[in-house]
Write a sequence for this structure.
């Protein structure tokens, strides 16, 4: 079962719908025990980095960290990916999971922010999440903060400079774009995650 | 490169698409769910469903329509028409919409924008502005209630305020151009797009590919929306995107 973690931030229906379409057993849940038992964990996220503090309060942060530690495949989407890092300029007092090193930053003044719409991926051929997908594929983004390029970056995107569109390390994956809203390409990304 | 978005709009009344429907190869040309899927397959970047009946007794019908349309739609999906409160918005989100579009209710009480944005994020809140040029006042004014009543508000100033309240995008319809097929209102679009930092979707007046070129180049639009011109054939969005690509405008093609 795939646990889609509900921590009170935004709308999770679209994410569930996409896994349903792929024929995957999944549930939207905020229950620690259910997340603990899950074969895979997905952390969606829209809105503010500060909303992730709810994960710490409810004990879900600890549960997710230990799942990742046991090698349970994890996918963070949008703010869910940003939370895998240490900090974000969006909410300096909020501490992320710190699984990956780095800080989310603002877009430069030279471009409109938020970054909304379809943009292209530059994919690392070794990525497991993007298996079968080519660089130049379009996916849908909507975000005001971004993760810089790091050693864990598996796909880049260009908007006011290059940034991490996706990261991966071991069984932990993050995507800044919304695979559930990115047409066939997005469904393929989710399918690859399901196949791990 | 961030592409310009082409958005297909479905005007729905009592659960049926009502405007200029001439799709081929569909079992039911007036069915919003089938049309949404067809537009998505044809290359639309986003779907907007506007409930033009918007009467409260028809909310259940609308939610059923949204649920059916959302089930097989994996591109952004906006729903508007008659959304007045956070509760109205929440119902539409749980039926599968990604964004709500609000118009009259936001003008009557701009705090509704912030309330929805706080719960669902700014990216989920589109403020729709129906603007009409007032020669006497020398400005565009925002109209409410399907364009029947002026709010007396300057449309550009209202767009700026909506952004401050937490709107994630502006859906800007030119009432002067709507339905003419003579082209978007590039002046209006540029006036708004240059005044806000959030994306502006131009709407009203699309008749041909050249109009999209103009509104992206001269109107500084981030996205353009049309209804009737996409109903003439399944390949229309794809043809439009190829034309735009040939003109040097970045679009998502092939999808």
């Amino acid at each position: 079962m795939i646990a889609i973690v509900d921590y009170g931030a935004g709308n999770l229906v679209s994410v569930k719908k996409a896994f349903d379409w792929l024929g995957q057993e999944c549930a939207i849940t905020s229950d620690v025990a259910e997340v603990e038992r899950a074969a895979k964990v997905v952390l969606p996220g829209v809105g503010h980095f500060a909303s992730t503090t709810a994960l710490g309060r409810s004990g879900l942060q600890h549960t997710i960290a230990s799942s990742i530690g046991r090698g349970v495949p994890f996918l963070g989407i949008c703010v869910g990916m940003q939370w895998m890092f240490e900090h974000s300029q969006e909410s300096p007092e909020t501490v992320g999971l710190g699984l990956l090193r780095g800080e989310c930053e603002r877009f430069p003044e030279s471009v409109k922010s938020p970054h909304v719409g379809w943009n292209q991926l530059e994919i690392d051929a070794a990525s497991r999440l993007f298996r079968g997908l080519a660089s130049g594929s379009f996916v849908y983004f909507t975000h005001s903060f971004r993760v810089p390029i790091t050693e864990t970056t598996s796909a880049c995107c260009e908007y006011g400079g290059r940034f991490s569109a996706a990261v991966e390390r071991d069984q932990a994956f993050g995507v800044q774009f919304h695979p559930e809203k990115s047409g066939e390409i997005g469904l393929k990304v989710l399918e690859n995650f399901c196949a791990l | 490169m961030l592409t310009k978005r082409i958005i297909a709009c479905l005007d729905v009344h009592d659960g049926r698409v009502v405007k200029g429907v001439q799709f081929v190869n569909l079992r039911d040309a007036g069915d919003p769910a089938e049309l949404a899927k067809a537009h998505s397959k044809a290359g639309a970047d986003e779907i907007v469903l506007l409930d033009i009946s918007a009467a409260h007794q028809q909310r259940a019908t609308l939610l059923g329509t949204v649920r059916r349309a959302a089930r097989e739609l994996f591109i952004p999906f906006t729903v508007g028409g008659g959304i007045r409160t956070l509760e109205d918005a929440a119902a539409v989100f749980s039926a599968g919409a990604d964004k709500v579009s609000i118009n009259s209710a936001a003008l009557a009480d701009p705090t509704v924008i912030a309330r929805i944005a706080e719960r669902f994020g700014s990216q989920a809140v589109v403020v729709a502005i129906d603007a009409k040029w007032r020669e006497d006042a020398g400005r565009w004014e925002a109209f409410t209630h399907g364009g029947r009543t002026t709010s007396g508000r300057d449309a550009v100033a209202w767009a700026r305020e909506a952004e401050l309240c937490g709107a994630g995008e502006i859906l800007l319809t030119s009432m002067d151009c709507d339905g003419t097929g003579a082209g978007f209102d590039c002046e209006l679009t540029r006036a708004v797009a240059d005044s806000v930092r959030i994306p502006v979707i131009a709407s009203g007046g699309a008749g041909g590919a050249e109009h999209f070129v103009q509104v992206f180049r001269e109107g500084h639009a981030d996205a353009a929306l049309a209804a009737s011109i996409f109903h003439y054939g399944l390949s229309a969005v794809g043809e439009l995107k190829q034309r735009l690509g040939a003109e040097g405008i970045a679009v998502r093609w092939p999808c």
Remarks:
- The CA atoms of residues 18 and 180 of chain A lie 6 Å apart.
- Chain A has a mean pLDDT of 95.
- Chain A has one domain: 2-194.
